[in-house]
Amino acid sequence: MGTLAKELAGRFIVIDGPDGAGKTTQVDRLAGWLVAQGVSIVRTCDPGGTAIGNRIRQILLDPAAKEMSVQCETMLYMASRAQLVAEVIRPALAGKACVLCDRFISATIAYQGAGGTDTDEILAVATVAVGNTLPDLTIILDIDSETGLARINTNLDRMESKDLAFHRRVREGFLRQVRESPDRAIVISAAGTTDDVTKSLQEALISWRFR
Hints:
Layout: H1 3-8, E1 12-16, H2 23-36, E2 41-45, H3 51-61, H4 70-94, E3 98-102, H5 105-114, H6 119-130, E4 137-142, H7 145-151, H8 164-180, E5 185-189, H9 194-207
Parallel strand pairs: 1-3, 1-4, 2-3, 4-5
Helix pairs in contact: 2-9, 3-4, 4-6, 5-6, 5-8
């Protein structure tokens, strides 16, 4: 087993960031690269990642659900997350796989925080949902809101279709988390080419020293 494979065994890594940052593409690339390095990985996404979570995801992102309150959003995201942790993440970590997740609690802090929910309230609900199953490292792919929104297609989901001011608050919510927890989160610019961002992600994982 190589050094990276040993370092990442049983580690929980989250890739997050504003809409249009290219998370899904980069998670795809990172997963393939890690496997090539001999790392045993379990890739998943949040919300979703389980049959129950996928049904919750459909409700959350349905553009027709305009009347949904931010408190309801928070609870639904956490419900999906609770199932994901119980069904996928905890068993994978117990088996010493590296879990690579597209979004997690960091997204709720940014998005529902931008909607007016207090961070402490979000974290209180998160404790009920996931207990102490928290990421070892959260990587925020950062992009300015105008550029990010210009990158995504016109078939917008309920969260993507919110106004520019909301998305600017979301971005700041992500960046604030890194400032407040530099020992557990880092920022990587997503403004470069896809290859540039991939290289930065790989370098970050090689150089990061997991606590």
